[in-house]
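Re: the request from the purification team.
They wanted to know what the chain is likely to look like in 3D before they choose a buffer screen. I agreed to run a prediction and write the result into the notebook, where they can find it.
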Amino acid sequence: RFSLLLLDLEEYYFEQHTAYHVTGSFKICSKSIIFDPEELAEPIIKEEKTLTFQLEFCSKTEDVVQTLLQLHRASCLEKLGDQTAMIAANLQSRMARSSFDKNFQSVAENPHMECAVEMVMPLVCNPGHVCVTDKNLYFQPLNGYPENVIQIKLHNVRRIYKRRLGLRPLGLEVFCSENDFCSDIYLKFYSTTDRDEVYYYIATFLENHAIEHTAESYMLQWQRGHLSNYQYLLHLNNLADRSCNDLSQYPVFPWVIADYTSPRLMTNAATFRDLSKPVGALNKERLDRLLARYRGMPEPSFMYGSHYSSPGYVLFYLVRVPEHMLCLQNGRYDHADRMFNIGETWKNCLEGATDFKELIPEFYGTDPSFLENRLSLDLGRRQNGSLVGDVVLPPWATDSSDFLQKHKAALESQYVSEHLHEWIDLVFGFKQRGSEAVAAHNFHPLTYEGGIDCDIEDTDQRIAMLTQILEFGQTPKQLFTSPHPQRITPRFQNITRSSSINSPDAELSPSQGEDSSFEDLTEESRRLAWANMESLKPVSSHKIHKAVTGIAVSRGGSAVFSTSKSTLKMFSKELKEFQRSMSFSNMALSSCLILADSKTVVCSSWDNNYFYSVPYGRRQDTLMGHDDAVSKMCWFEDKLYTASWDSTVKVWECNSDSFSTHKRSQFNLLGELEHDAGQVNTVSLNPAGTLLVSGCKDGAVTIWDHSSQRTLQQIHCHSGTIHQTDFSPSRHVLSVGADSCMKVIDVQTGMVISSVKAEEEQCFCWDGNWVLCGGQSGDLLLWDLLTNTVTKRIPAHSAVTAMWMSELCTTVITGGEDRQMIFWK
């Protein structure tokens, strides 16, 4: 019966009334009147421009008459722009007169904001109001259709994305799951300011539930084999504003198979499509004709007269799931000979003068319903007299499910894995626009984000432009501006163009790729310092004491403190000599740190924690908090975190003011993080102080939520003792262990996204992409984690045991078993 798909493009459904005499409901829309009779055998009647209904209404007769008069006046306007302006004014008036019905909210909720929006669905938008509280997101349709209110609990939200609609930044899409492709709600705002306010408010609820992923982070997981080709393409589409709710920006997937005629699907190169070229450039003869036309075309010139993704193409593939197709084509199916069949469609994409379409995700999914005429629809007869039914499959597929399985296996094959980055360059990357796009014969200027002015004053011109954008299709948002690195794939054979469709999950091995950032660093100085880390040079070296176990530096760098197995020593950089030496007990010191005021040094020992006063030159306090050796410490905002071989990490509240006044300190135990794995060797905090990571003797890395003190992830990723763990500036943890491995762990998923076989490293500093580390070899090694290669090896000590790096990453201090401390620039 009645559906919003009965409305025209840019038409709105306002309200419903009950009719007498002829029973049914009377729908008033912005461009038409729809009568939906109660008797199902009677057809729905839709009248546009002329008012021919003679019905009586049970209520609000005067309001109905006024609405019909406004509709009639709008329909009598000749110019499309004038009609649209009047309809928009009518809609705004209705939105202004109404507001969110707060009866749907709990009295315990605190509203944050309310504004007018539209809910976006395929081919239609439904106006209403959005209300955000401290508990829920509500959408209330103006017309009460299909339900009075939609409610989403904020604690269920897992992902939220800003979207562009009609090339304008007005959309917001909310997901309550990590992996589902379709969202829970897609909203269009009338101003970017309102959209952003809702976005940032909801985003504050996500900090403890989700970590925002970037194209670079997904790229690294895909490159190393932790995401399949299918998953990676879904993530890129999502980041590029492609949504199943917006047919003009439906997710786009590539054709990967070029053979739809053979009885068997072979694994040689001829089976696969050339992924380095757009569809329009796959046939050289057709490309030559297009180039000749392009060179003779006045500005703005373009290569292709149709896009690779548009609403018409999406619904062409989904014609056997019919409701949207009938809406787009005024209730009629296309000519039977033009109906979707796989082999014919591929042939037309190679040879047709105006057909350059790519595929949609359904071709690589598990639901074959779009390939089957399950509803027994009357799709017509072809010229040869045959009825159009299920999609005609290639000879190598036994049925629709077999077709999808083999199609997806081809997507995951070695050949496609080795070349998919070339297609990503065309659609999401640096060949999408500009001179690189021209060289690659890649698209139409109206389809690019930022390529046109969406705020044209002339309404007719603006509507015509937006209609062309919506019908022609839109190019995805550009995600990469430099060449995309190749996936790391197994090399079982010398011929890299060969692949195995049946074995897509072979062991990965390193391959060369373009340089790309592992993390997005915020400080340019740090980025430059790490970019020049290969030029690290020793400035001075100093004999100190026994093997160095810890290094701490005062604010400004004037004093350097180091611990050994028995003493704490202070070195003056200005005088270039040791000034103090302090012994606390007969037990060895394992690490040290200096508080922000540079007046107190904290040392961990095999028996206690000791607090040393720099101004007074003596031990100020002692914290006896563990039953075994204290192995490592870290400090954040008056809280001390101590890791011990007694299988715990303890959190202490310390009054740092008492240190500066030389009073006895008060230590309050705030929490105790129990480990099942035995002794804890290392502990560190993320930059925000919200997460903690610990490493144990049995090779387990545990990530903790600081506020709740509960385990978020526990990963058994090493086969021996872990020497050090540390967070990157954002979303990853690096660990090194006695098994000579370096592991990069994704904080959110707990996935080991990189594993590097190195030497036995004891200590390191890293920025998320590069690692400077040292260990038993005595050398400093600079690792590039993207290529898993050592780019620089620098002789340093007999064995490196401790390392410190300045905040701007321009100064490094190392200590070793050779009793030396070396300063580096």
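For the purification team: The longest strand covers residues 111-121.
Please add any questions underneath this entry.
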